[in-house]
Amino acid sequence: MSMHDQTDFTRRRFLASVTGGLAVGRMALAATATRSADEPFFLTRGVVITEEDLTLADWPERAVAAGLTTIGLHAPKSPRLLARYIQSDAGQKLLETCRRLGLDVEYELHAMQDLLPRELFDKAPELFRMDDKGARVREWNLCVHSEQAMQTVAENAVDLAKTLRPTTGRYFYWGDDGCPWCRCRQCAGLSDSDQSLLVANRILDAIRKVDAKAQVAYLAYDNTLPPPKQIKPKSGVFLEYAPIHRRYDVPFERADDLKTRQQFEMLDANLDVFGRENAQVLEYWLDVSLFSKWKKPAVKVPFDPKVLAADLDTYGRRGIRHVTTFAVYIDADYVSRHGEPPLKDYGEQLRRWRRQPGRG
Description:
Mean pLDDT is 92; it is low at 21-25 and 27-35. The relative contact order is 0.12. This protein has a single domain, classed as TIM Barrel. It is α/β, with parallel strands linked by helices and 360 residues long. It has helices spanning 3-38, 59-65, 79-87, 89-101, 112-115, 147-161, 192-207, 258-274, 288-291, 305-317, 332-338, 343-352; strands at 44-49, 70-75, 104-110, 170-174, 215-220, 237-241, 280-283, 322-326. The chain is globular and about 50 Å long.
């Protein structure tokens, strides 16, 4: 072969390799794009239930069949009682079932009654909140300007996490349910939201000593729905937005009553403070306890798939990728009275939702 022929042959091999490489690259990009298009937008697709709801023994299997990723266990009053259940044979069996099914488990807790034990009030009332009349009171939350109170809360949060350890690394230690925070001279200048965020920041610091990648929720709900203005969230504190006082017979964004509009306006206001990347919506689409006014026998949940679809558009357009709903009172008795809950419809909509180009 002449030198010219060798050069020409080498050039052809080079061009062929480049062309082949480009083709492989295009195929890889196409495969990646296909996988991305197939992957659900909502990373967390969950339900939040209580221990009592587990009379419906196949809750984990139902969740997986609906395409959900996460079960949250809720402690409305005492996380210690939930921890006791998790340590029991039944609780360990539940966790093993969830592990086998690939289902994440989180713990969503109204925790302050346990994180600052109420019996401490008799010896150290200064740890506890002051009411509007200037009296230290045993009930509800704490004084966030008491270093001893904050340290006690942080230490007990770490201790509780030894048993209630979420598989996602996302911790939910909420204040007492819709209850006021401290009104002492030092705390009076801070809103309930600011005080709640101070506690979340402190718990994050403590938890990260035992779980380096931990994240801690700030619950925007009821009296802490307005965003904090004076305290800034530490990196690792994420928004959990729970609009309990909205309507469910119309899409959230389209409701025109004052209460629902106020709830909706707080969504963007909180996202401006906490960001969107790790934000979670805690909704009530399947919360039978809410629609039953927290009394049994439970009513049938008034689920409207069109409302859910519109609401997912509202949240998804804003870049919120973690969505869950209370499903309390969906237990064996509920299924016996009302038949199957709309769990599959809920899960299917979450799984199929996609963000449209140019929207949001």
